Amino acid sequence: MKIIKKSNIINKIINKSKNVGFVPTMGTLHQGHISLIEKSKKECSKTVVSIFVNPKQFNKKKDFVSYPKKIMNDLKICKLHKVDYVFVPNFNEVYSWKTKKVIYPKLANIMEHKYRKNHFKGVMDVMSKLLSIINNTKVYMGEKDYQQLYIVNKLCKINKIQSKIIPCKTIRSPKGYALSSRNLLLDKASHEIMSHVFKIINEYKKTNMNKIFNVNFLKNKIKKIGVKKIDYINLINFINFKAQKKISIKTNIFIAYYLNNVRLIDNI
Q1: What is the pTM (predicted TM-score) of this model?
Q2: Is residue 174 part of a domain?
């Protein structure tokens, strides 16, 4: 495993390689990230993992500062899973990289955009840079951040970025909630609540297939188990990202909520 900090060096390596898999991360790696690495290792001849906490996608500086960072442990995980290259750039290495002017896709129906105004611009800025530095790759991204996955896909198509986005199944804890680096900021009681949130939504969808979506029913049930703040619970067609009234196999229930001031997202 080689650790690379310079954009021009990783770019030269990738340009000389074929069939490269790329796993972009903000570090604090968990089993969800490991599943992406394993999929890339299985499908590609070389695998690159980037570790870069992008300040541009945080609306509040305190969220950026408090975001968990465990670089030494991340490197151990990458080595254990035989990653070929780990790209660990600083801010200037990413944002001083020259790229063509980026065309931003419209953020219609993207729920996160309403609550985190600059978040997706930050995501698109960093991904356009990273996919130029580490180009012509298969990019492995988790479906937990489905809205991000959808936007990055559109970004690649509009800007004719050659990398191919590979959606990967959300990895969940044995109790059902989606694995996330932010989970480390929560206590045991919060993890139990997260488990109940998943169970409530999952059971509701299973038992109400082809019925009208009742958002108030879900909100009330989730608030009763200790969730005080919910940004949204929406039923979305995950193909065209339009809100739906009736639950079907083409819909996911998207949620954003808070536990102990930590914002959590999921889609089920």
Answers
A1: 0.93
A2: no
